[in-house]
């Protein structure tokens, strides 16, 4: 008995020793692995361009997009093209902008009728577009009830949307499988979780039908190509539509709509395959956090792309551990726009709150930051028609000078850093592959050097 006990005790110790040495080995291996790994976190408010930056990295280092993605974007962009043109027609009425196509004598009148009478979802392969997630996003974007709810629920206050005390949410946000792009997060949190997609969808279709003139002609069924042609004509021929777009800071619309409209015929054609540019300009809101793995110059890069809308930010803390570098993407052109999820809050005010809270958070006390002043192309256009001083009264640069405006925002954001960590600033147009190639190569080179230094190789 004693003997048995003694043998058992020795056995136990032996197993414990073996286990300890195995644990040590695993820890050592994981430490080594971490040394050879760069973990880059993309953060920023909704629509700032984080996923577009990731798309550029995929084009550079992962061979681009799959056939399935090209089909998905074609379906989504077709729906967005129609949704955006219907939005412009409806918003023009609200803003009192005269449209040529509203005059029954106009050659564009019947085109407008066709567009308003068309149900965007009819011509979409919804499962290829993303199924339930696509439908939910679509009604959130285009139904009036959703817009009312978002306005009604407005806090009127800029908000970082996450905080140090937050415990995060339950469940896994992404499966960590290597070399996979995964996105299993569910959107939850603010106004959108209170909206029932089915009833919104019904409301939305009623709204669209309700806007149609009581003329029986709208009952006629039009082909996708006929609708595409009507969209092209309205965009090209109706000055009121363009004028309405120039005031699109007052409502929500896809920023890439001017790119989509002349290409509507492509998205309508069964033969067309989406180009890389179509995908870069297209938009699918990120829910949860996606993880994409790259191998760049022998170093493993793990890029985490987080959904930036308020409801998504509650999940951010799940991935704040062991970050090599945080890249904050700021849509610098959006200083005169309000948030999608809270229509009384200025997008730039929100980004300022967000950046300040992240930059000075204990999570990132020693984590270098990269700041992308993104959407510079749109800013160039914006400063000419929308004076920055109206939104930022302390701006004392020249009223339509892009360089002055960029310097102002750069200085403002750098002043929010109350730590000693460096912040590297780049001016970007995330949809432009050529310029992004330079920026992203500079960023990955810097991160590789930093990784080598911290692992003691240099
Ligand atoms: N013109 C222009 N459009 C841009 C630029 N960067 C991004 N976009 C467009 O802006 C839209 C939103 O970009 P996303 O990359 O989806 O934004 P995001 O930050 O990932 O948004 P969330 O997933 O909601 O957090 C897309 O239609 C992009 O094509 C830019 O520099 N210039
Ligand atoms: Mg995204």
From TrEMBL:
<feature type="binding site">
    <location>
        <begin position="47"/>
        <end position="52"/>
    </location>
    <ligand>
        <name>GTP</name>
    </ligand>
</feature>
<feature type="binding site">
    <location>
        <position position="51"/>
    </location>
    <ligand>
        <name>Mg(2+)</name>
    </ligand>
</feature>
<dbReference type="InterPro" id="IPR002975">
    <property type="entry name" value="Fungi_Gprotein_alpha"/>
</dbReference>
<keyword id="KW-0547">Nucleotide-binding</keyword>
<keyword id="KW-0342">GTP-binding</keyword>
<dbReference type="GO" id="GO:0000750">
    <property type="term" value="P:pheromone-dependent signal transduction involved in conjugation with cellular fusion"/>
</dbReference>
<dbReference type="GO" id="GO:0005737">
    <property type="term" value="C:cytoplasm"/>
</dbReference>
<feature type="binding site">
    <location>
        <begin position="374"/>
        <end position="377"/>
    </location>
    <ligand>
        <name>GTP</name>
    </ligand>
</feature>
<dbReference type="GO" id="GO:0031683">
    <property type="term" value="F:G-protein beta/gamma-subunit complex binding"/>
</dbReference>
<dbReference type="GO" id="GO:0003924">
    <property type="term" value="F:GTPase activity"/>
</dbReference>
<dbReference type="GO" id="GO:0007186">
    <property type="term" value="P:G protein-coupled receptor signaling pathway"/>
</dbReference>
<dbReference type="InterPro" id="IPR011025">
    <property type="entry name" value="GproteinA_insert"/>
</dbReference>
<feature type="binding site">
    <location>
        <begin position="280"/>
        <end position="286"/>
    </location>
    <ligand>
        <name>GTP</name>
    </ligand>
</feature>
<protein>
    <submittedName>
        <fullName>Uncharacterized protein</fullName>
    </submittedName>
</protein>
<dbReference type="GO" id="GO:0001664">
    <property type="term" value="F:G protein-coupled receptor binding"/>
</dbReference>
<dbReference type="GO" id="GO:0046872">
    <property type="term" value="F:metal ion binding"/>
</dbReference>
<feature type="binding site">
    <location>
        <position position="430"/>
    </location>
    <ligand>
        <name>GTP</name>
    </ligand>
</feature>
<keyword id="KW-0479">Metal-binding</keyword>
<dbReference type="GO" id="GO:0005525">
    <property type="term" value="F:GTP binding"/>
</dbReference>
<feature type="binding site">
    <location>
        <position position="286"/>
    </location>
    <ligand>
        <name>Mg(2+)</name>
    </ligand>
</feature>
<dbReference type="InterPro" id="IPR001019">
    <property type="entry name" value="Gprotein_alpha_su"/>
</dbReference>
<dbReference type="InterPro" id="IPR027417">
    <property type="entry name" value="P-loop_NTPase"/>
</dbReference>
<feature type="binding site">
    <location>
        <begin position="305"/>
        <end position="309"/>
    </location>
    <ligand>
        <name>GTP</name>
    </ligand>
</feature>
<keyword id="KW-0460">Magnesium</keyword>
<feature type="compositionally biased region" description="Polar residues">
    <location>
        <begin position="176"/>
        <end position="187"/>
    </location>
</feature>
<dbReference type="GO" id="GO:0005834">
    <property type="term" value="C:heterotrimeric G-protein complex"/>
</dbReference>
<dbReference type="Pfam" id="PF00503">
    <property type="entry name" value="G-alpha"/>
</dbReference>
<keyword id="KW-0807">Transducer</keyword>
<feature type="region of interest" description="Disordered">
    <location>
        <begin position="173"/>
        <end position="194"/>
    </location>
</feature>
